[in-house]
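hey can u check if this looks right to u? its 56 residues, i copy pasted from the old doc so theres a chance i mangled smth
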Amino acid sequence: MVEIVDELKAKLAEIDAKIGELRREIVVLGGQKSAFEKVINVYDRPSPSMSIQRRS
């Protein structure tokens, strides 16, 4: 019975480690997502010349 509990504790430690890795990756990906959104917003804005043409 002790062996089973030890195996379960080891598996739990692996899962905890994996969750930690995923949390760190989520932070990195969140930063990358934010950077992409900023760049998209810069390049996706209508240019002032387009606004003037629309008014004509």
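The two ends are 83 Å apart (CA to CA).
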